[in-house]
């Protein structure tokens, strides 16, 4: 009986997040009654998600299958791969987390800052690219890849139905800094010897032709530029680009500049890099904010977060002259060592303008390319396909158009169109040596996180926030004698974000008239009926006059 049951065990790939936008990467791999989760990241909200801090993958599948989940496997330590763990580990049933040493430290730091109350229940086991893990009938191995953070790994998932290769985020860099090259030999060996059933491959840069620039080339360019700067220099980059930060610190040491770190995420990354041996510079390289004024300008380098113009980040506060320790002045050079994330162009341009107005010279990608990506371009994607030689191909990580462009690349490499899996978040993909099919769906709508609230900010609340942000609010007040049903005072009205009351006397006067009329028509009815009638009439009037629809709230008091 048991043998017969096992013969019908199915191999499934279930992407829970990461296939509809950038971030919130999370995938379940199932074989029979065993399952693993690969990554549990966070994503950033869209512009209309007002007041939402970030989003996480939907936990419903994890809650329903917690007994199946044997482990959470982490490819690397970026937030779009680990940021959701504090919110999702409990729905998973607290499985062991398997991560590299660097990712482990970042995960533990995340629990320390976001979820101290459950940190004692969490077990994170350090793994290397040379280890093998076994979860029932599923066996896991890893292979090194290059990315913008240390110890990034791809995953080899072996099951009785076939082998799946998950690349994680990757590029092929033949001259990397602070890390070894990708494990070409291991990837090629798996492809040559195992007849890989499916390759799941990073699609982030599927539109970009050619090869990505080597990180060592960017390091050389940065050193050349920094060597020529005579005054203070501020370098802004992503706090998560650890390899870039490490190289900048080495350049500062070589050029005899002291370094001030501004930005919490960057401080955390540097502390972890020092702790595990990725960064070996003397403590005397670093200075505090109150010490920077004592140094000559040509002996100072400031590393800051905020390359995307984020309002609260260090560089934006400098640009607004609101930073506690650093005031931008004539002679300063600001280097933006980061590409502009789509949608952030206006913020970055405003940041550059503000810095120029303060007297700084700003070097950014439009002037000189001082940034390279951590994700492979088309030629690297082709190389991965050639090395793995998969039967089936499944593009992952990115918007739908990214996946489809990656699919075109795979087809150009000889993979039949019928063997290319364009999945969406929540699709259940069943696969075996004969092919693949979609066999259902799991809930995959991302969950909004706002402060300490998880999932409570739904569409109704977001619609209300959008209406408030777009048109403002009008509040009317009625005080009623509950015995006589007469108004005890004239109706009152307040506007916030809709019209300026002092210059809109005609509109306010007509509003008060409508409120009085509607009350007289409905005063024998209940409070809710009065409120609804007044609200409906005001909404109709406001739209006819202004073509705007403010939120209308009614306060009715019986005395």
UniProtKB/TrEMBL annotation:
Source organism superkingdom: Bacteria
Residues the record lists as binding Ca(2+): 51, 53
Protein name as it appears in the record: Ribonuclease J
The keyword Hydrolase belongs to this UniProt entry's keyword annotation: yes
Cofactor binding: number and manner: Binds 1 Ca(2+) cation per subunit. Seen in 1 crystal structure, it is not clear if it is physiologically important. Binds 2 Zn(2+) ions per subunit. It is not clear if Zn(2+) or Mg(2+) is physiologically important.
Underlying gene: rnj
Similarity annotation: Belongs to the metallo-beta-lactamase superfamily. RNA-metabolizing metallo-beta-lactamase-like family. Bacterial RNase J subfamily.
Active site residues per record: 202 (proton donor), 375 (proton acceptor)
